[in-house]
Amino acid sequence: MSEDTTTRPPVRQWPATDLHGVDFDPVLSRLMDEGPVTRIALPNGEGWAWLVTRHADVRTVTNDPRFSREAVVGRQVTRLAPHFIPQAGAVGFADPPDHTRLRRSVAAAFTARGVERLRSRARDMLDELVADILRDGPTVDLTERLLAPFPIAVICELMGVPAGDRKLMHTWTQLILSSAHGAEVSERAKDEMSAYFARLIRSRDDGSGEDVTSLLGTAVGAGELTEDEAVGLAVLVQIGGEAVTNNCGNMAYILVTRPDLAERLRAEPALRPRAIDELLRYIPHRSAVGLSRIALEDVDIAGVRISEGDAVYVSYLAANRDPEVFPDPDRIDVDRAPNPHVAFGFGPHYCVGAMLARLESELLVSTLLDRFPGLRLSVPAEQVPFRKGALIRGPEAMPVTWSAS
Questions:
Q1: Distance, CA of 363 to CA of 352 (rounded, Å)
Q2: 60 φ/ψ angles, rounded to the nearest 5 degrees
Q3: 72-113: per-residue pLDDT in tens?
Q4: What are phi and psi of 36, to 5 degrees?
Q5: Under 8 Å CB-to-CB from 338, ≥6 apart: which residues?
Q6: What pTM was computed for the model?
Q7: Is residue 191 classed as helix, strand or coil in its secondary structure?
Q8: Distance separating alpha carbons of residues 389 and 226, to the nearest angstrom
Q9: Which one of 45, 222, 263, 351 is most buried, counting C-beta atoms within 10 A?
Q10: Angle, CA of 384, 389 and 395, to the nearest 5°
Q11: What residues contact residue 307 under an 8 Å CB cut-off, 6+ apart?
């Protein structure tokens, strides 16, 4: 990292410890208080990185070509997880125009039309799960019976993964998204998922399917993508799709621990889309930060000189609590409007599956409110276990009960 003669803020250690429920990270709170641009060191990698937390600055950095994801490849930037080492050709570490080319190959599956095509099938899969739960209730583990299997079923449907392989996908994804088992286990799971998708993509190159692996097979056959690029995209989309499990789990946790909010949303269904946006803003779904960028030249952000070669992180969680944009940001306000949250990111790397995640959230929230009267935890809230060592936070289990008719 280059050095300059300007005064730099001290480097703060950010251990990113496991937190319970939807508690906001106290270390991130302190960093936000210190200033809009600070410096951090995470548990893995080397050195330090800038942390940008203000809403306007986060949007600037994520949309500015002077901050590169591709330049991270080959660098041991300080990071949360021991794995997730940047790889050349991966869409998450590509810059435009390569990044644009990679995303274009699967864009058709994530357009409004593509996502809406899934709605009726998603609703049918959800109804099947709910029917089984209502038959076995009125006390179940909501994570095991609904919050995990529903997003898995939907993303596998979108990807073109056969129903019989859903559990295998879930197992791989949980190992990839956790540092609790060590880097070797996570990397092996990623290699096995990659090999699986390579076989699936090779078998679907006739241009007849609308699922993601078929689109990728067609793109590889046409020479628009290499097989490695297609496999990397498939792995990223599959993992991102299952991450909805934790976001929806956090939404469910809020609904069952805030009965006044749940009752209002039962009584006023028209408020639900706005409420989901507010919950997306509010929920601290990450355990720290996502992927870093490298400054390609000297850039001033909020009066701070970031030098060429410096590593930079943005915090979407912090941006979503910026009091200049969101008055009383630590309060859930379902009447909040406008709500320009950045829960799905911003700029070229905006989440490709954002519309799909909204669809799943809307269906799940309405199901919880309408199909399970009096839904509540069957244990004290502090006894709900949340995932340990997870890059994306969420409840590991959620024992609930409801008023059986």
A1: 19
A2: -65, -50
A3: 998 999 999 887 666 666 788 899 999 999 888 888 888 888
A4: -70, -20
A5: none
A6: 0.91
A7: helix
A8: 33
A9: 45
A10: 25
A11: 1, 2, 3, 4, 295, 298
> Which of 234-238, 298-302, 371-375 bottoms out in mean pLDDT, i.e. has the lowest?
234-238
| C-alpha 129: how far from chain center | 23
Give the CB-side neighbour count of residue 81, counting CA atoms within 13 A: 28
Q: Which of 146, 145, 134, 138 is nearest to 360 (CA)?
A: 146
Task: Report the alpha-carbon angle 148-284-45, nearest 5.
Answer: 95
Residue type, 284: P
**Of residues 242, 227, 261, 12, the one with CA closest to residue 105:** 227
Query: Considering only CA atoms, which of 254, 303, 240, 263 is closest in space to residue 282?
Result: 254
- State how far the Cα of 103 lies from the Cα of 33, in Å rounded to an integer: 37
Tokens of residue 73, six digits: 């490849």
Three-state SS at 377: strand
pLDDT tens, position by position, 21-31:
999 999 999 99
